[in-house]
Design goal:
Blueprint: E1 2-6, H1 11-23, E2 27-32, E3 51-54, H2 60-67, E4 72-75, H3 89-109, E5 115-121, E6 129-132, E7 136-138, H4 145-149, E8 165-167, H5 180-199, E9 203-208, E10 210-212, H6 225-234, E11 240-241, E12 248-249, E13 251-253, H7 254-266, E14 273-277, E15 283-284, H8 285-296, E16 304-305, H9 322-328, H10 336-345
Parallel strand pairs: 1-2, 1-4, 2-3, 4-5, 5-9, 9-14, 10-13, 11-16
Antiparallel strand pairs: 6-7, 6-8, 12-15
Helix pairs in contact: 1-7, 2-3, 3-5, 6-8, 8-10
Length: 353
Amino acid sequence: MRVLVTGGAGFIGSHIVDALLARGDCEVVILDSLSEAVHPVAPDYLDPRADLVVGDVADASQLASCVHGVDAVCHQAAKVGLGLEIADIDAFVRDNDLGTAVLLRELAAVGFAGRFVLASSMVVYGEGGYRCPVHGPVAPLPRAAAELDAGRFEPGCPLCGSGLEAVAVLEDARLDPRNVYAATKLQQEHLCLAWSRETGVPVTALRYHNVYGPRMPRDTPYAGVASIFASALAAGQAPRVFEDGQQRRDFVHVRDVARANVLALTAPEPVAGAFNVCSGTPRTVGEMAAALAAAAGPRAPEPVVTGEYRLGDVRHVFASSERAALELGFVAEEEFAAGMAEFAKAPLRGATG
């Protein structure tokens, strides 16, 4: 099987490439722009057995050599981050949505009829699932700056103002992207679904939760909270935990994410639809920071809870893993403490390669 992995030189994409090649029955083509902001040269961890094409997924002429003869496509290339600066809105739309549209058009042009797996994200949900003791399941309103300034981080019921219980979000939950990046990820799903209807090619959208592990980038716009904390600890500084540290997420190891992609690409029959890719065990951001600090050694500084916030963030978002287990056969295997211990000692990928 010949597989095209867009963004295959990146954090998640490179682990997918490794997992595909480890099977022994896959040829892999990587299309990666080697962006100056992320890795301006090919990283030394790339497996030389993969064919690397340096190119932009939004450039049809550069796609031509990649899409012919492939049996499956794993679309990981994207500009990530919150997209809080409105000046970046066109860059997010170009890289994520235009790039996806050009890829889909070129695949249709060559009569592609294989598997298509899209890297989506938990951000399409906005806030996670909530239940009001009076009104049952509800969707809270976006959090207001005045409430956050006052240290009131938990959303209330939009109908009665009561405190809410956070619950695991299901794939059929209402989608409510709350920043530019989230909006482009949802649009990617919509574009792929429209393309699937026109071409008959099944699409599997994998909604990644908070991914961590080796090769994670640091000191770039692409750095996630886990890599920010790890970078601080490596510099002998205390991780700065926003809000009160009690915001809940699902932290999933990158090797588990890679395995979910391989399952979607190689299942005996296509498994179409959207799936949460998560550990199934929510933890607070404060817990994650503490686990990293503990793994960094006895002299590592303790995390500091700052009360700061980012307006584009959500309070709680963690997911049900049941559908992925039942339909895709995916169950996370990497243990949290061991994964954090490995991550605390793994070198982070810098912007200079």
